[in-house]
Amino acid sequence: IFGSAPHLNSSLTHSPVTGSAGPMQAPLLQLLRDLQYFLDSVYQEDWSSGTVTNLFVFCVGLPVNCLAIYGLCRLVKSGMAVPVYVINLLVSDLLQLAVKPVLIARRLSPCPGLQLQRAYAASKMIHFFGLCGSIWFMVCIALERYLVVGRPLWYRSHRGLWRTGLVSLAVWAFTLAVGGLYVLGHLVVTVSEGAELLFLLIPYFLPFPLLVSSCAATGRALSGPGAGVVSARERRRVLQTLGLVLGGYAVLFLPRYLARWLLWAKGDSRPAQLFYRVTGELVGLNPLLDPVLYILVRKDVSSRL
């Protein structure tokens, strides 16, 4: 993910589309080839884990995420804001999980047909949007945790479900807009790697200072004069939630973006390529980490009820 990687070789980047094409289908086939070439350069086949790991993540992550979403949906009626953001985070994970069978099938097929090519191109775009959504809903969860501790009065008066719903819709709209501009921009114009990496600062690196600032502000609020109103159990739960969110981003997403910069700067350097591949393995494990938030959020809401 996170930009083209021309120095990595992919056996599937230029694989042919099987089947004959008439005069009317030729432009469509060419567009699919161009789109596949771009998406392969964006993701590379090493962006995710290997086939076996992909199957494991799909088989374990799909039921776990579905159960977590079901449990959190039952808590929405409590009027708390956290479950709404966590639900959206898990939905973004489901988007990534839902397309894994297509990505695995494409990986195992040396000569894919036209239908598989179409599904493959759509699946990679969906996965791209799912990753963007995961990152930005992590930011929403961190900011909400700060408001619970640092601005409790404001939070209680602005925690309606319709407000959190609007914020969630805004995040999805932002994700679709950025992802759409990114994909369409590469299909219409030629973008240099440096400009591409600068553009990816918006959806992938900008959350980092926001997450760090939220965690730091929450820590100051918990150690300030008003921290006495927060019980030790709630303080520990808030810190656990923020630690999971910030740690998940710092371990799974941030290294991948830094690896892309390193690969661009070092080119054919073997350590840079190895780092790029390892970070791709970590990104594929993202759907297994987020359901842990369900446990923390459920305890948090239950204690408030």
Automatic annotation (TrEMBL):
<feature type="transmembrane region" description="Helical">
    <location>
        <begin position="55"/>
        <end position="73"/>
    </location>
</feature>
<keyword id="KW-0297">G-protein coupled receptor</keyword>
<dbReference type="InterPro" id="IPR017452">
    <property type="entry name" value="GPCR_Rhodpsn_7TM"/>
</dbReference>
<comment type="similarity">
    <text>Belongs to the G-protein coupled receptor 1 family.</text>
</comment>
<keyword id="KW-0807">Transducer</keyword>
<keyword id="KW-0325">Glycoprotein</keyword>
<keyword id="KW-0472">Membrane</keyword>
<feature type="transmembrane region" description="Helical">
    <location>
        <begin position="238"/>
        <end position="258"/>
    </location>
</feature>
<dbReference type="InterPro" id="IPR000276">
    <property type="entry name" value="GPCR_Rhodpsn"/>
</dbReference>
<protein>
    <recommendedName>
        <fullName>G-protein coupled receptors family 1 profile domain-containing protein</fullName>
    </recommendedName>
</protein>
<feature type="domain" description="G-protein coupled receptors family 1 profile">
    <location>
        <begin position="64"/>
        <end position="294"/>
    </location>
</feature>
<dbReference type="GO" id="GO:0007186">
    <property type="term" value="P:G protein-coupled receptor signaling pathway"/>
</dbReference>
<dbReference type="GO" id="GO:0005886">
    <property type="term" value="C:plasma membrane"/>
</dbReference>
<feature type="transmembrane region" description="Helical">
    <location>
        <begin position="125"/>
        <end position="148"/>
    </location>
</feature>
<feature type="transmembrane region" description="Helical">
    <location>
        <begin position="160"/>
        <end position="185"/>
    </location>
</feature>
<keyword id="KW-1133">Transmembrane helix</keyword>
<feature type="transmembrane region" description="Helical">
    <location>
        <begin position="85"/>
        <end position="105"/>
    </location>
</feature>
<keyword id="KW-0675">Receptor</keyword>
<dbReference type="Pfam" id="PF00001">
    <property type="entry name" value="7tm_1"/>
</dbReference>
<dbReference type="GO" id="GO:0004930">
    <property type="term" value="F:G protein-coupled receptor activity"/>
</dbReference>
<feature type="transmembrane region" description="Helical">
    <location>
        <begin position="197"/>
        <end position="217"/>
    </location>
</feature>
<keyword id="KW-0812">Transmembrane</keyword>
<feature type="transmembrane region" description="Helical">
    <location>
        <begin position="278"/>
        <end position="297"/>
    </location>
</feature>
